[in-house]
Amino acid sequence: KVGSREKGLPPGPPTLPIVGNLHLLPAEFIHYKFTEWARQFGGIYSLKMGSGTAIVLTDAAAVKELLDKRSATTMDRPPTHLAEVVTQGLHLVFARYTEKWKILRRAAQAILTPQASARHLPIQQAEAVQLLHDLLQSPDSFYTHIQRYSNSVILSVLYGKRAPRFETPETVTFFKTEHEWVTLLEPGATPPLDYFPFLKYVPERWASWKKMCQFVRKLQRDMYFNLLDKTQERVRRGEGNGSYVETLVERREELGLDREMLGYLSGVLIETGSETTSSYLQSLVMALVAYPEAQQKAHDEIDRVVGEHRMPTLDDLQHMPYVRAVILEAHRFRPTAPFGIPHCTTAAEEYKGYLIPAGSTIFINLWGIYHDPELYEDPENFIPDRYLLTENGTKPGVDSSDLRPTLAFGAGRRICPGLHVAQDSINLNVMNLLWAFNFNKATSAEGKPIEVDTWDYVTGLTSKPRSFKCKITPRTPEKADIIQHEFLGAVDLFTKFEFDLCPEDQEYIAKSRGQ
Ligand code: HEM
Question: Does 408 contact ligand 1 (Cβ within 6 A)?
Fold first, then answer.
């Protein structure tokens, strides 16, 4: 019967005819609801989405078995009609398990290997220095400084062209396009097309989402292909600088990429690479402000290992167990993708006596795993020390062998291909920020400390704190001098990524470099 739960499925909340459990799903913070149900129905339960089925995994052993080990039948994505209309199967994240996805994924992996990621390290390091420099100049704008940082890194890695300001035209275009795309994808913004397919056939005059899809499609294509064409033009002028797109173009035939795929692959990587890393860093700053004791311990360790007279390097991290614990705890405390990105089964699977039908959507409820009181002591608080006690931060005595440090990046053959770039970026910036600054509560006009609300988040597929106030001050004048010195020292590298800049960017560059 449509909407009721078939025999053999894992348990779940009671259903209604036709809609199943759809009426119970909130439009926002779906992971809180997923977690509430997990505490009631267990680590594996099912939801009826109209006539379809979703399985929610809040159990690391189930993720390992079903998504890592049985990846061959769980690596599809569920149908997303909007993504299909807007990107026609070329969006690496939403693409079904098709030939197109295989080609895009292979190309993404070929170029985001740890070795390739290491090649891009110098520009990442230089951009991270600019982040520190920007924070010295205007600490209150930390939120957008972080966004500029991650957007500029990914633009440089992909297209060899950086964004010196948050207002740099490419960055502005990216955020405008991204905003429209995310708004279109928001649950509730459009009718539930994937659960009630007949809605797709409603004529355009009654379905305004169809116009929106065309609008977003145009915005994305304009941005993607403009960036691609300009990069290719520059390479033809002999001004290549080893960017990702150059490598893709060189290896185009071997990788089987046509122009459409080239444009979409790189464009989608800006989207996935930009907001994830910056959301993580914004959450980290929030946690440091809210948990001064943890910040103090990290400061003490970094002072012991790196000291006053130089900036940290990636090699230092191996000597800093507490900072490594801070990095893992930030993923746990506020995961960037709190319910992963849904997978879909291509064949029926049996697990622990349950039957998971072919075509089921599978969610990894990362939030629920990371906030499970059975696994973690006091899971609602930011306590990096837990990762000093046990490898996975779990309570001593708990078997955590199914957890792994990369769980925040998903599972199986869909695991985040940007993992190495992201980890380098995160490691570098967490060390830099802790070395350079104190993060404290801002004070109100009446001189009272302004508390940060660590629950004030925006969520869609990814999750980030809403812009908040805090006070960021350099830890010593010497450190401020070193940052300034390193910033000027990075100018030669920056210039290799500065092409066709608008007059405002040129003016900013001249001014900030004292030229
Ligand atoms: C804090 C940083 C990041 C986190 C936490 C993160 C997390 C994730 C997660 C959870 C998934 C879904 C995996 C699955 O389906 O099981 C994913 C997919 C993906 N990520 Fe990341 N990511 C991050 C940074 C990046 C970066 C820097 C890039 C690009 C350079 C990137 C590119 C992608 C792509 C293309 C996919 C889709 C892969 C596919 O469906 O085949 N991510 N990421």
Answer: yes
